[in-house]
Amino acid sequence: MIRESYLNAALLAGLLAVPLCALLLDEPFIITLATRAAILALAAVGLNIALGWGGLVSFGHAAFFGIGGYSMGILAFHAQNFMPLDLGFMVFDGTKSMPIIWLVAVVLSAFVALLIGLLSLRTSGVYFIMITLAFAQMFYYFAISWSRYGGEDGISIYIRNDFPGLDTLVPIQFFSICFAALLLALWLNARLVASPFGLALNAARQVPVRVQTVGLDPARLKLVAFVISGAITGLAGALFADLNRFVSPSMFSWHLSGELIVLIILGGVGRLMGPVVGAMLFVTLEHVLGGFTTHWHIALGAILLGVVLFARGGVIGLVCGPKGQS
Amino acid sequence: MTQTILETRGISKSFGSLKASDSVSIDLRAGEIHAVIGPNGAGKSTLIHQICGGLRPDAGQVLLQGQDVTALSTAARARKGLGRTFQISALAMEDSVLENVMLGALGASGRPWRFLAPVMGDRALRDRAEAALERVGLQDNRQTRTAALSHGQRRQLEVAVALTLDPRAFVMDEPMAGLGAEGSKTLTGFLDGLRDQAPILLVEHDMDAVFALADRISVLVYGRIIATGSVDDIRTNPEVRDAYLGESA
Amino acid sequence: MTLLRVENLTARYGASQALFGVDFTLAEGEVLALMGRNGMGKTTTVKAICRMIPSQGRLEFSGQNLHVLPSFRAARLGLGLVPEGRRCFASLSVAENLIAAARPGHWTLERVTRFLPRLGERLGQRAASLSGGEQQMLAIGRALMTNPRLLILDEATEGLAPLIRAEIWGTIAALKRDSGMSILVIDKTLSELAQVADSAAIIARGKTVWSGAMEDLSADVTEQYVGV
Amino acid sequence: MSTILVIEQVLNGLQSGVMLFLMAAGLTLIFGVMGLINLAHGSLYMVGAFAAAAVAGATGSFLLALLAALVAAAAAGVLVETLVIRRLYAADHLDQVLATFALILIFSEGTRLIFGSFPLYLDIPSWLSGPVTLPGGIQYPLYRLALIGAGLAVAMALWLLIERTRIGIQIRAGENDREMIAALGVDISRLYTLIFALGAALAGLAGALVGAIQSVQVGMGEPVLILAFVTIVIGGIGSIKGAFIGAILVGLTQTLGSVFLPVLFRLFLDPATAMSLGASLANMAVYILMSLVLIFRPTGLMGARA
Amino acid sequence: DIKVGMITTLSGGGAGLGLDVRDGFLLALAQAGRDDIELVIEDDQQKPDIAVQLADKMIQSERVDVMTGIIWSNLAMAVIPSAVNQGVVYLSPNAGPSQLAGRGCHPNYFNVAWQNDNLHEAAGAYANTAGYSNSFILAPNYPAGQDALTGYKRMYEGDLAGEVYTQLGQTDYAAEIAQIRASGADSVFFFLPGGMGISFLKQYADSGVDIPVVGPAFSFDQGILQAVGEAALGVVNTAQWSKDIDIPVNTAFVESFQAEFGRLPSLYASQGFDTANLLISALEKADPSDNEAFRAALREADFDSTRGDFRFGPNQHPIQTIYAREVIQEGDVFTNRIIGVALEDHADAYAAECQMP
Ligand SMILES: Nc1ncnc2c1ncn2[C@@H]1O[C@H](COP(=O)(O)OP(=O)(O)OP(=O)(O)O)[C@@H](O)[C@H]1O
Ligand SMILES: Nc1ncnc2c1ncn2[C@@H]1O[C@H](COP(=O)(O)OP(=O)(O)OP(=O)(O)O)[C@@H](O)[C@H]1O
Ligand SMILES: [Mg+2]
Ligand SMILES: [Mg+2]
Prior knowledge:
The structure holds 5 protein chains of 5 kinds. By secondary structure, chain A is mainly alpha-helical. Chain A is 71% helix and 2% strand.
């Protein structure tokens, strides 16, 4: 068994080394893949805060991913087409600046997470899974018929947005941005888990009544976790949109919510780096298997099945042993 | 006259046609252990739930230190000084013993909304938690996973968590449940010393413990208090013998 | 004739070993008390006998090796379990709880409800809304419905009012007296056990430390291993 | 909008609800009893439809095709249960999610490997095709009437099985405490395999019945799966009665929503806006229904437990 | 060597279309005997984000000269604008969203199939010729669906008995069919691609409603006709190609496709085949490294199209004849037969908006 902290360091080093090697070998697409993995990992890190530590199995995190994506899409669309965005109370030119887009994405998804969380947290268990799905589906269908922003076709942004001091079109530079965002989220996650809030949240997942009897409100703890979680996934959505220079309703789809959950389980639920391992593995498999046969889904399915049957606690569980033992 | 810490005034609760609490008035005074006994299904746990906030009474009031808390949530009552242990242990089993008491201390501090500073680095919380552990004698097990504790130790931990809240009153539902003779004896001794800290409202079927501990006993049958009095009053009350004690006492 | 033979039984929960060698035998028609402090392995022994957890050693019921059988087959040989914590099927009615377990034999729904009249009055009520004592009765009735050759009672009086405890002890005594049923009983209170049990086995730290006839049990031994 | 049209639409809603029930019943059974979130349930629906199409193509008999659907789906169910699911009862819910997600991939791509990428042909048998005239002059397809009838019959039989038979009681007991029912002498693994096969067979039957009026193609199970989940959650998980009520509610909401919402909006909006707004809202209608139900009844209409 | 990147849908529910395009394309390459064309094929799983990444891969890592293959409009909108702006020539074998035909046209973008509205416009025109004057029209509620209804209405001169948007991916059309029955329409126009169309047609046939139906070829194409079966018999649909277009290149194509792959070619296969032949014709005149010359060669469209005359309009979209076909049965096989011309030499409605830089 390897100490989890060593593995974590090795993983991050790996995720950083792959694009650097790709840079040397002049394989820009590998960098794009690494960026994709980093962004999916970021989204899943967000979900993991709700799912892993708060015990909130959200099957609707695509809602936040999509809101992040559409924040980027809409702001950049207006900037790109020189059509001011009329918000009713103010007129806004749109923007191509990443920091502003991120801010909007984070604030909007946090706000929506607050609303969804308020309503959803009345339920628990499978009911919670399904009500979060319901909200995401509402966004999905709304986006599909929102013809102003392309409906099902989505919005294409021809040039990637700007980040002060960087050329975001250079793959490695955009990767650095995403990697930095991932590191920041992981750092936040680690601090959160060890913080007073994390202690209370952890207990709220296991024994809500106990938390109540010490004078805290478990529902509110979970709500805050849900909001933080949604905000991080929203940020990932904005980055994902920028990676593809494109947003569409598929960012809201339940497949995406499911995929995020799968990433976490694959890596290890409630493990700091679980989402990162999951994302790296998933993106690699998708890329490598796809090269062999058009029926690669069978192979992917078999591998996932193998992980469930023979690696309880995900890949990290396999390598480091069960949670709480190291 | 001693001060009344906790009091119910005519609380009633029905489940359908069943009257689980029928105008129950009971009080807990400073420094005493007040035991509530009664047959199974008499409504003891239901009474506890209403006192602690898990159930809302259909009628009547719950007063804590003279203040009406009937409308407050469980969490709010806890903040006002109601310390509770459960019939079945409710502890974070995956966490260490220390983390469980830290949670109590955190609740008592009322400041859970801190996201970045490590909780274990908070000296004030830490001291409070350690003090509670020491009080129940679990200080050597602070790093043990709660799941690995024995039954009796879990009971002690529950009390420790309640202690961190510095409660005005304890409410305990069958703390002896599942403890062997020896365990019961130890816990009895421990609870005996606890009454100086805060009075205890104790629901218990273990008559040895009740008779050893209680200053007063109330007997609940079909949702009603049929008698309240000293140990000897109750022991000899024929109604109580019929409804509850049988020949055993 | 020996009904249950347990020899050098060992068992573990994941990484931690709970039983280190439990031995005792129980004859047909006998009532055996299994005693010991908290956490010493009484329930674990019962679970092993009922094949609810994996175990090693010798485990024979009327000459059959239980270790080769899954839980339900062991039960069909004639093990009737009243588990620790009652474990009634909460969402089922009293009658359904009984029917779910029924196997042909002496004990039928009528006999059981006549024997435990409190249940008879509540056949349609959901188990979840029964009081603790009634649930305990139900668990006993349910075990009887399987028409066991050996009834296993694990803390059958826990959490019950003194009056009902007395009733349950009366029930156990009646079973022994009227139907000559073999019974393995675990309980905290020595005095009540002493009245019904023929023999006893004491477990400490997962090992049998004493076994023999009930009347041979000395105060020293119980003081040392049971704490009374 | 004439009464006839309204009645016809109600029938349509009923019919899609009843078919949804066949899916939802298996799902709710499997979830309720085994605590298993079976994402692969939609794949069993697909297996049923493909088996039916293949057999109908080879033999020309619709009844044989239905039989084949039942057998193939049940067999697939048994296979999946014994090879994969059985090892996961003790595992975390989330592990089951991952495993059944993996099974979707395998089933879908496996079906494509065997049957190719093009939709298959499965048609209504001639003795059930065409419309009949109902009292009041409503022209309604006979096949859809037959679906309503078949669905109601299955629902009734299932309800009797679960509520009235000893096996049903044991199934529900296993739902409460699996280990305990085994310790009482009930072969719970066999019972589980049976339930899984039963759930699978119902899904397969639904796939075949619906396949005759829809497109038999890879991935056809996924939209139905999501709807079936919505259904059992509305009804309350584990409850057959709940699944039935939920299914009818969802069927009616979907059908009537898509027809009447645009009409409703036309009362106060211009036609183009009304149409697109109505259509989008109709898409969301079942989800809105589900969230409303859950907000007011957090464990569904018939659910007792969380 | 020339490197061509093909991103198309090869897995999941929509794989049939992608497979046909790919096979048609491969057949043309094989027949031309060009082994200097390196074809990189990738599966987009019908997911826009995957398609974008594959495009990035082809452009960044594989450094392809020409790209092609995308089936779906939403994927096309995700990939094409950015690809052509990076200097890659894109030949569309299927999707033709209106944005790319009008304001978003680009010298590097060529459409070898149709602009999305074309077949619907043809259906509208056919409705006029057939004397329909009260159509009930329906399509899914998404951009291509909205374009379809717009396209039909652009040419159709009669009244509308009803206009309905269905749900994307909907499988049950009982509600819509009941509305059609009640509407008093004399004809039905629908655009329901893939499984949606199969479901609609089967249910429509069973409902006993016998109002004539027209639609674009997508629901009557070779790949899915067998699944629709008799329900489709006699339905009129519009397409720029049909297997019975009686010109040698088409006859040869149908024969060789069937010989090679063991199935009849579909509309998509013909489009893949034509796309490859267009590419080959241009490669014979210019090298992609000379972007200007290569594009000029493409614009000439100097190849034998399976659909007969083919030329590009100013926005590099086809100007072509669109036929009305009827579904017939030949032995066991359901297929189409041309019954007339719906639109002669038709160009799309957006060409005027296109200002080529
Ligand atoms: N949620 C409920 N719905 C219906 N009946 C209930 C509910 N909760 C409790 N009851 C009933 O109310 C009565 C009182 O129950 P309570 O749990 O308070 O008894 P108790 O005195 O604590 O018994 P015990 O000593 O066995 O724990 C019982 O008859 C019980 O069945
Ligand atoms: N599910 C479990 N996982 C891990 N350890 C367990 C589990 N159940 C019991 N143990 C441990 O096994 C040992 C024996 O427990 P067991 O329940 O058999 O004791 P017991 O004699 O029945 O005690 P009690 O009188 O409290 O019921 C104890 O140390 C206990 O902590
Ligand atoms: Mg109680
Ligand atoms: Mg025990």
